[in-house]
Design brief:
The complex is a heterodimer of chains A (270) and B (286). In chain A, 77% of the residues lie in helices and 1% in strands. With 270 residues, chain A is mainly alpha-helical. Chain A starts with a helix and ends with a helix. Chain B is an all-alpha fold and 286 residues long. Chain B has helices at 6-17, 20-43, 45-50, 64-94, 98-110, 116-134, 142-152, 154-166, 170-178, 183-194, 196-212, 215-220, 238-246, 251-285; strands at 54-55, 60-61. The chains are: A mainly alpha (270), B mainly alpha (286). Chains A and B meet through helix 1, helix 3, helix 4, helix 5 and helix 6 of A and helix 1, helix 2, helix 4, helix 5 and helix 6 of B.
């Protein structure tokens, strides 16, 4: 009896989640055309397409990852390879956990005051990228740490016994072995950046702009564009189409992440 | 003098990089506090937290209605998300064959990636009309926000709770079964007890997500500054308040919004600290 209730709860949960995806795709896919994907918007998005916003949603995560990846992997390498469990490593882990729990609106506030105002970047690709980089840093640190720890200890011993230094071992043995796991973290972070709105709207800007030509140009991402379409009642069909593009993009990116993680685990367990 | 080896250089570079997360956290704390705290002290913490009027043009900056609304919506989200999520986690870890779990659990986690604006849009297009039609009120309400947030926190609860339940040693289950317990008794008397700090941590982390969620809430909560008198009333949360007004705010008004950010930051940090402690205890025991 109790088990039946648990089963029903699980089914309900799955049904709701599947419903959301199916509903968005069902309403949105018919409105996605080649013109929609490749043309700039007209009349604030009532007509035309989403091309500049796709570019924004593509560039912003790349910039964020380019900044967060060296920092995150570096932190993970330090935690795993260069030190034992000390008060310092516990502090670093606690700080990472805290950073992971901060809501995106606070990242947005911080990015606005620090990158946009104090450092004078204005609403720009750079300010948005830096803000998102801080936001995804905990994800990159955690997944990289797990991936590095999963590299068998024997690999390191063999490397060191052949006279390699610690740095050579990290560079030639540990990091290549951990690469698929690290890439999983990267893809999860990209997915989060694509869907992010609150942290982006006051750092990268929301003005309808063309294709950015430098990192100091403001960009509107697809998520921000969709939010404006939906809340300002500009066009419901276009909003559904944008939602479908967003959901497909995020699901594809996250599926890639899981696929890479599974491949990684299978390789390790052989 | 001997040149420092590349190994030594690498070590110091990695040590420096390792501070990036803490440095970011400190920067965020310092700059939000720097913008918000002076306002709170000048305006008076009790006035700011306890006053119910918000009207920047008159110099009224009270966020009490937003605090109460955030609490209502968070509580509502937990009432919906917690039972569903924990039930799902228990069912998946104890009563579903492993190959099926390997598909269902990632599928649920995958859905954590759906952007919050899409959840909010679903609330506007599907849920709000249902509430308006069947229960009355404007539709955009405490109830709509609670349901949407309750759904959004499911992946967090299921994923972390299922990990905690999976970490309970099999000997516990075998011991209970050997003593004559049924499968269900073994689960709820033994396994759930052993996993309770992990489940608790998942709930607290989910609560943090619910408190901090912004875009979905802006879209479905209605955003009227008022105390909720019932679940069908439209309200404005702390997060929505910041995001809605920040665009046009300057001077005192802007400082007051950063001060709202300070309140949010402190609340989230407290929740995080409690959750981290709960997870630590679990690790220590096993």
């Amino acid at each position: 009896m109790a088990v039946a209730v648990l089963g029903a709860a699980t089914l309900l949960m799955l049904a709701v989640l599947v419903f959301i995806v199916v509903f968005v795709l069902d309403k949105g896919l018919p409105n996605i055309t080649w013109t929609f994907l490749t043309r700039p918007p007209e009349e604030m998005g009532r007509a035309g397409g989403i091309f500049p916003f796709l570019v924004g949603s593509f560039l912003l995560p790349i910039l964020a990852i380019a900044i967060a990846l060296p920092l995150g992997v570096g932190t993970a390498v330090y935690l795993c390879e260069y030190t034992r469990e000390t008060r310092l490593t516990r502090t670093i882990r606690f700080g990472t956990d805290c950073l992971a729990g901060i809501p995106s609106i606070l990242f947005g506030l911080f990015g606005l005051i620090f990158f946009v105002d104090i450092l004078g970047m204005g609403w720009s690709l750079l300010a948005g990228g830096l803000t998102l980089a801080i936001m995804v840093l905990p994800t990159i640190i955690r997944t990289s740490e797990e991936a590095i720890r999963a590299v068998p200890y024997a690999y390191r011993e063999v490397s060191c016994s052949m006279g390699a230094t610690c740095w050579e071992t990290v560079r030639r043995v540990v990091l290549p072995g951990a690469l698929p796991g690290i890439l999983t973290g990267v893809m999860l972070s990209v997915g989060r950046c694509i869907g992010e709105t609150a942290a982006v709207i006051y750092t990268a800007g929301s003005a309808e702009s063309g294709i950015p030509t430098s990192v100091f140009d403001s960009v509107r991402t697809l998520a921000v564009h969709f939010y404006l379409l939906a809340t300002e009642g500009i066009s419901t069909p276009k909003a559904y189409a944008s939602a479908a593009v967003l959901v497909i993009a995020v699901l594809l990116v996250n599926l890639t992440a899981y696929w890479m993680m599974n491949a990684f685990i299978r390789k390790r367990s052989r | 003098m001997k040149r420092p080896s590349s190994d030594k250089i690498a070590q110091s570079v990695f040590r420096a990089i390792a501070f990036s997360a803490i440095a970011s956290l400190l920067l965020i704390a310092v700059f939000i506090l720097k913008e918000g705290l002076p306002f709170i002290l000048r305006y008076g913490p009790l006035q700011f937290l306890g006053r119910s009027e918000w009207d920047p043009s008159q110099g009224f900056y009270g966020i009490y209605p937003m605090i109460v609304s955030s609490l209502w919506i968070t509580l509502g989200a937990m009432l919906i998300g917690a039972p569903l999520g924990v039930a799902g986690a228990v069912f998946l870890s104890e009563f579903v064959p492993k190959p099926a779990v390997r598909i269902i659990k990632p599928a649920i986690e995958l859905l954590a990636g759906i952007p919050s604006v899409v959840y909010g849009f679903m609330g506007v297009m599907v849920l709000a009309p249902l509430i308006r039609g069947h229960l009355g009120g404007p539709g955009l309400s405490v109830l709509a926000a609670s349901i949407i947030l309750g759904i959004m926190i499911l992946p967090t609860i299921v994923s972390i709770s299922a990990d905690a339940i999976g970490a309970v040693p099999n000997s516990y289950r075998e011991g209970a079964l050997a003593l004559g317990a049924t499968r269900w008794q073994a689960v709820h008397l033994v396994v759930l007890k052993a996993a309770r700090s992990g489940i608790l941590a998942s709930l607290i982390l989910a609560m943090g997500r619910a408190v901090g969620e912004t875009m979905a809430v802006i879209m479905v909560a209605g955003n009227t500054i008022q105390f909720p008198h019932g679940v069908l009333d439209p309200v404005r949360t702390l997060t929505a308040h910041i995001a809605i007004e920040m665009g046009a705010a300057t001077g005192m008004h802007r400082q007051a919004l950063f001060a709202t950010g300070v309140v949010l930051f402190v609340a989230i940090m407290l929740l995080n600290a409690v959750a981290t402690t709960a997870i630590r205890q679990k690790v220590k025991r096993t």
